[in-house]
Amino acid sequence: MTATFRLAGLRLAALLAAPLAALLAAGPATALDLTKKRQTLPDLVLGNEEGNDFVVENKEIELESGKAYRLRIVAKGRQEYKFYAPEFFRYIWLNQIVIQHLEIHGGGPPDHFEFDEPGEIAVEFVTIKPGEYPWTIRGLEAKGMTGKFIVK
Questions:
Q1: pLDDT at 118 over 80
Q2: Options 2.60.40.420, 3.40.50.2000, 3.40.1280.10, 3.40.50.620; CATH of 34-151
Q3: What is the pTM of this model?
C-alpha cells in the first residue's frame, strides 16, 4: 500500500509541476503593476483665486500603505510656495512627477517643489511605509501652511 501512495503522490506532483513551472517561468511579466491601478487623491491646494494666499485645501491626506496614488499639488495664490515633505518623499516609491504634461522620472526623492507662480505639479507614487509625515511650505508655517500625509 505504501508503494501505491508513493506512486499516487508522484503522479500528483507531476501534474502540479508543469503549471507551477510555467507560472514561475512567466515571473515578473505576470506580476501586478501597482501604477496601473492608482487612485487619484483630492488636490492639495495652496492659496485661492480670491486673494487668500495662505489658505490650504486638504491639509491632511490619508493613504494606505502599498497602494498607488496620484496627487496634484496646485498653487493658486500669488506667493512663492516651497513645498517640503522630506520624510514622505523618502518612504514612497516615486513613479513620476508631471509638470505641464512633461514627465520627470528618477531614482531618488526630490528635495522640494517650488512654485514661483500659480500652477500644478502632479506626483504619481506608491506608499511604502506607514506613518504620519508632515509637509510644510517653507517660511509660511506660521501662517498655517502645514499639513500631513497619514499612511495606514
A1: yes
A2: 2.60.40.420
A3: 0.75
